[in-house]
Design brief:
Length: 425
């Protein structure tokens, strides 16, 4: 009878990755900002020097893409050329230009007895990042983690394996020259899904896991992880057109939120219209959505104004379509709209279009989402747009991080207490 040692070997390999990351994270806490910035800038330069090798590695991924069942749009997101590598390099330079959050004093005060207390920002430690098959995310995640003082373990999609490996090789080589600790940036090279399971059990080495991908992946991570997880499951985002909304503005916002880029988590999937404006607004927006090839699934009240609407089901109100479909309902009040969003939404990004300041204020208070927009598209919920720089994802959680997760969201804090022989009586 033959015995395979593969599971044991894989577990040991993952263990070594985790231990190396933990060791690196301790050294990163002492690393000067100048060293991290030099690594980022030099890595950007080296990526451009290695562009031919990166594009050649990417060609191997593109050649295998059809065997993984990727759509044409997914293959396009996977593809790298000189321009896209230059964009990756620019992203690293932009992270270098951001303020280093590590060491920032969040609060400080002196107690009556003279005890000085500081609340200072520190890195989380080790980040395990699981993500989809876009190779630019490999560099972005490494950059934002190391700049915020964290070691990172990268587990990218197998579809971008060659591209990601080449990018990480560049980052590691430059890191060795710049004084980055070994193990600061590591790539899980095996496509074996069991590797994820092994790493998710390693809460003694990994401080936080961030999954970025489909809902099934994220739910698996949440169910198996033994450490905190920063995540969002989906993006069922809403636009509510209030009774006082400017019709032209509302049409532009809805069309942009839905159509500007459909396959992303902050695209609008649901439209809610106040009954007092439905007769004027719905025919106007339906014309524009129809012209964009959007299928409209509407309730009975909305269907009166949209001749080609398909009857909506309750499941439609809960669905993140990530494509050319939108659900539409007509409701009697702002309160009903807020209740509908809180019931069917995903707490990601939701918007109101209104000319009533009080209505806007009530909406922002009542809607329980990570970002609430007033007279703006849901598509603006993005770290770069918010001025946070690169982001590693968007969180709909309520503890630690919510909304776009940038450098500060990859930190926590510690209290530093200074005395002069103080003892407690």
């Amino acid at each position: 009878m033959s015995i395979t040692l593969k599971p044991l070997d894989l577990a040991q390999e993952c263990r070594l990755i985790g231990l190396a990351a933990k060791s690196a994270s301790r050294q990163l806490t002492m690393l000067d900002t100048a060293v991290k910035n030099r690594w980022l800038v030099d890595s950007a330069d080296e990526l451009m020097e290695s562009v031919d090798e990166i594009v050649a590695a990417n060609a191997l991924d593109i050649a295998a893409a059809s065997s993984f069942g990727l759509s044409e749009s997914a293959i396009d997101r996977l593809r790298l050329d000189k321009t896209r590598v230059a964009q990756i390099a620019t992203g690293l330079r932009e992270v270098a230009a951001l303020p280093d959050p590590v060491g920032e004093v969040i609060d400080g005060f002196t107690r009556p007895g003279g005890l000085q207390i500081l609340k200072r920002r520190v890195a989380l430690g080790v980040v395990f990042f699981i993500y989809e098959s876009r190779p630019n995310v490999t560099a972005d995640a490494a950059a934002i983690c190391v700049k915020s003082g964290n070691a990172v373990i990268l587990r990218g999609g197998k579809e971008a394996a060659h591209s990601s490996q080449k990018i990480v090789e560049v980052l590691q080589a430059v890191g060795a020259r710049c004084g980055l600790p070994e193990g600061a940036v590591q790539l899980v090279k095996t496509a074996d899904r069991d590797a994820v399971g092994h790493l998710l059990k390693m809460n003694d080495c990994i401080d936080v896991t961030i999954p970025r991908g489909g809902e099934s992946l994220i739910r698996r991570v949440v169910s198996e992880a033994t450490m905190p997880v920063i995540k969002h499951y989906d993006g069922n985002c809403h636009v509510f057109v209030d009774e006082s909304a400017d019709i032209d503005m509302a049409v532009k916002i809805v069309v942009n939120a839905k159509c500007q880029r459909m396959g992303v988590c902050n695209a609008a999937e649901s439209l809610i219209v106040h009954e007092k404006i439905a007769a004027k607004f719905l025919p106007a927006v339906a014309k524009q959505l129809r012209g964009q090839g959007i299928e409209m699934r509407a309730d009975d009240r909305a269907s009166k104004y949209i001749e080609d609407a398909i009857p909506a089901t309750e499941q439609d109100y809960r669905t993140e379509y990530l494509g050319p479909i939108i659900s539409i309902v007509v409701l009697d009040s702002l309160a009903e709209a807020c209740d509908h969003i809180n019931e069917y939404g995903s707490h990601h990004s939701d918007a109101i279009v209104t000319s009533d300041l009080q209505a806007a204020e009530r909406f922002t208070q009542a809607v329980d989402s990570s970002a609430v927009m007033v007279n703006a598209s849901t598509r603006f919920n993005d770290g770069n747009v918010f001025g946070l720089g690169a982001e590693i994802g968007i969180s709909t959680d309520k503890f630690h991080a919510r909304g776009p997760c940038g450098l500060r969201e990859l930190t926590t804090y510690k209290y530093i207490v200074r005395g002069n022989g103080h003892i407690r009586q």
